[in-house]
């Protein structure tokens, strides 16, 4: 019996990783827009700016008071937004690695990987 992944397993892994990356890109885009709008002192009363600020407040909430913001005039450099972007990237990278660890591996590849780990 072969230890190769079935087409169904491969499809599930592929779709799962794509969904995780897609959600990540949406969150990162919102946070990037927020960072740029704050940095360029966008009018917070404008519809687009108000939308970005309100939607991006959710993923930013755990990081909001980690750093103080630097302001030059009305321009704000939001360190918390950059931290959130970095933390979410590391989190998604870890989730993808965990998902990929569930794939089937043949005995020879597993043996080689274990020997490589032992030699380190």
Automatic annotation (TrEMBL):
Spans through the membrane: 19-36, 79-100
InterPro entries noted in UniProt: CCB3/YggT
GO terms under cellular component: membrane
Transmembrane keyword on record: yes
Alphabetic keyword roster: Membrane, Transmembrane, Transmembrane helix
Pfam family, one: CCB3_YggT
Name of this protein: YggT family protein
Native species: Candidatus Kaiserbacteria bacterium RIFOXYB1_FULL_46_14
